[in-house]
Amino acid sequence: MTTRKYLPTLSELIDRLSISQLKEVFITDHKEEYAKEIADICHDIDILLPEAEAIDSDLIRSIVVLSQMNLHIWHNESNYRNGIKDGNNLELTHGLNGIRNTSKNKIQEVVGGRKDYKIDCLAAEFKDWNISWRKK
Fold this sequence. Notes:
The chain is mainly alpha-helical.
């Protein structure tokens, strides 16, 4: 039987696409491999999109927020690994990962499917990072 049982959700594929896109730009030694991975992910997204009931501005915004959080986490962790401690805060990365998971859950609300229920909140010192999600 070849039915899906526990394959990546649409939100997980979009998350991986965002990360693979960062890798294609920032890790140029493996640009071709990441381009292939991106093509494969896009193929799977195209298969799942007809299952989505509605693509709206909330879904698009969730994708944008997800991509932005991935970029900031990328820069923060890269700088930290390179010994640049100034302005890098792993607690912020942890909080941004919670926003990232919230974004993925919001995508799943639109298209249906599994959600991640472990959503950490941002520390009070990072309140500027809070997202003004629209209430439905």
